[in-house]
Amino acid sequence: MGKRRAGRELLRSLSKKQKKHLREFGEEHPFYDKLLLLLLLHSYFPFQSEDSDKSSAESDSETEVEQVSGYHKLLVTLKTSPESESEEEEDESESEEAEESEAEMDSEGSQDTGEAEGGEGDKNDVPEEEEGTTDTAEQMLSQEQADGTDTSCDPRHGVIEEFTDVKHESEFSLETNFMEEESGDCNADKRDGNPFKQHMDKELDDREMEKMSTLPKTSSQSQWPRLGQLIFSSTLEKHKTFKADKEVDVKQLHLHKPLESTWPKVNKPFLSSVDKPRDSSFTLLQRELFCIMNSYRDLFYPERNALTNGEEIRHAYCLHALNHVLKANAQVLSNNAKRRDRKPGSDTDDYRDQGLTRPKVLMIVPFRECALRIVHIFISLLEVNDKKKIDVSNKKRFKGEFGSDPEEKPPNLKRPEDYEAVFAGNIDDHFRIGVAILQKSMRLYAPFYSSDIIIASPLGIRTVIGAEGEKKRDFDFLSSIEILIIDQADIYLMQNWEHVLHLMKHINLLPLDSHGVDFSRVRMLNLNNWSKYYRQTLLFSALQDPQINSVFNKHCFNYGGQVAIRNVPLTGSISHVVVQLPHVFRRLEAESVTSVIDARFQFFIDKVLPEYRDAIMSHTLIYVPSYFDYVRLRNYFKKEDLNFTHICEYTKKAAVCRARRFFLKGEKQFLLFTERFHFYKRYTIKGIRNLIFYELPTYSHFYSEICNMLKATDSGVDATWTCTVLYSKYDAQKLAAVVGIDRTAQMLQSKKNVHLFVTGEN
């Protein structure tokens, strides 16, 4: 009973938002992954005793070890060996932990105040496995249902039945509504050169389809004033110069009627005095990006920055998405009126204006705060003036669930500006919401099959799609997506990139059910299963990464072609290192991309680690971007009985405090440190004298951040500082982001191990 009460106390300590996430079993951040495993064990064995629960967990681990997949083997290691030491340490008294945390904070000074006692660490703690977890979750569920919210879920299948608005179904139905004659929106969309109609009405023949599926793409380059170097690739279109519009007149963009008047007002905060003389509605970046978007070509822009241009880009793609939806719906409503007034026996093929399902735009964003900002932009673009407010259903509920509580943010936290920009507001990453737009009204929480736009996180959409073999799974609503927007793709590398790949495999497939569609209104491109060739994909990221490039190159089939921005960094992030530090870049050889993982591990244990085994090389931090590499190194260090400690995204707060203290005082010679932990926490690790980058960081600015941590220890021994970086020829993009393109070319041309000494002094 003591453990049951302790479990309830742990759940009571969580905020209302965290309790909801706990009930929905979602992986808010990597710190919740272990809690998910514990809850799943309770769901399968709810009535067993404490001893039997322990034995069941052990038997589950043994079963998973027997599986062939290395991925599952590492997950088993996560549940057993990685935290075995920290779980034993958790048996210490709470007062002793508090004293250790307080002592650490005193030793580290004011910069890290609140890091171990509060802040993000509090949000991302993983509670102990307790019997009371299931009971408390059931109480929460009944309370939510009493409040009128349908929140039942099946944790074994990952299908969540959240609130959906069924009350306004008839008001937002495309089948039963007609275009208002006085609006004139449909006539405006019939103007010559309308990009929407040109793209969607083009009929591809079998010969063109065969070309797209068999022939390679041809590419050409061009230089634009703001975007820089563009790579235009296509199978159907021949080489031609794709130029940016020097000036943009809103009336020439073929925007839907209300957007022509609202866009200049909504975008005004981003306009500077430099932009205003030439163009009163777009910044230079927006002008060039929208030129590509409005041509319905695929776009990959890898220079999104949350601090500088993030909101500019968000406004631009929101304008494009809303413009597309309004035009598509206006066409349907106009044809509804024509069908109503048509003479009997007339041809019905003239009214093919829909897909197999209604959703047209899918927007993938990392956090609820992003969805909140997108909806606010939509509302602002639809409101012509202050007197004509649009009707938004369920707006209060939306603000409550997607907004943030200012009181939840702990005080005295000092983090870099880019961290504050990325993690602003509600950072829950398990959500999805349907949005329906009809003329002058907006419906939030619309059922997916009644939505025009779906805004979701990768995890939120993954739990709906499900996995093969699950009974409750659905992806038919993705069959007719015409615009796919993936914003902040780099963050998904820190969450779970598999969710993005899973989505790309299930988009634009033929639906398994008709869902009440009128096939006489369905476009032939959808009936022919050619939807993916008409889908426009807009991909925004803060960096270029092989995994992101792979999605753009292998999962985007737009017949209009693809445009990728490919600017090379002239100076790398090493120029931002403020400490005088010798940087040694050591090249390892690998025959292929698949073999580089094993080659790097072997190179490290044979060539690098022996140089640091001596006690004189203490205070060595090993930065590991991949969690699976981290597990491999940790197991090897344990096997070799090395004096080390480790911190990863799954490590509990108390264990993190102890690891940092041991490393600072020199009680542990090595510290294994994962990139995802640094991404979510950005703690300053003190006591570093020797740095080893097991692999180049995903984010180039992490390199300078980690190097600059050496100045946090005022010991006067900077002459003994070292920094070693492992790289291969397959790390060209990451290497260029760190040292610059010129040095990268020199380093890659040499086939031998290169020792390059660089002083990163400004």
From TrEMBL:
- What ranges does the record give for the region Disordered, renumbered to this chain? 49-156, 334-353
Indicate the principal place this protein occupies in or around the cell: nucleus
SUPFAM superfamilies of this UniProt entry? P-loop containing nucleoside triphosphate hydrolases
Q: Which key words tag this protein in UniProt?
A: Developmental protein, Nucleus, Phosphoprotein
Q: Which GO terms describe its molecular function?
A: rRNA binding; U3 snoRNA binding
What is one GO cellular-component annotation here?
small-subunit processome
Question: Where does the UTP25 C-terminal domain lie?
Answer: 573-757
The UniProt entry's sequence similarity note says: Belongs to the UTP25 family.
Q: What is the purpose of this protein?
A: Component of the ribosomal small subunit processome for the biogenesis of ribosomes, functions in pre-ribosomal RNA (pre-rRNA) processing. Essential for embryonic development in part through the regulation of p53 pathway. Controls the expansion growth of digestive organs and liver. Also involved in the sympathetic neuronal development. Mediates, with CAPN3, the proteasome-independent degradation of p53/TP53.
Query: What is the protein name stated in its UniProt record?
Result: U3 small nucleolar RNA-associated protein 25 homolog
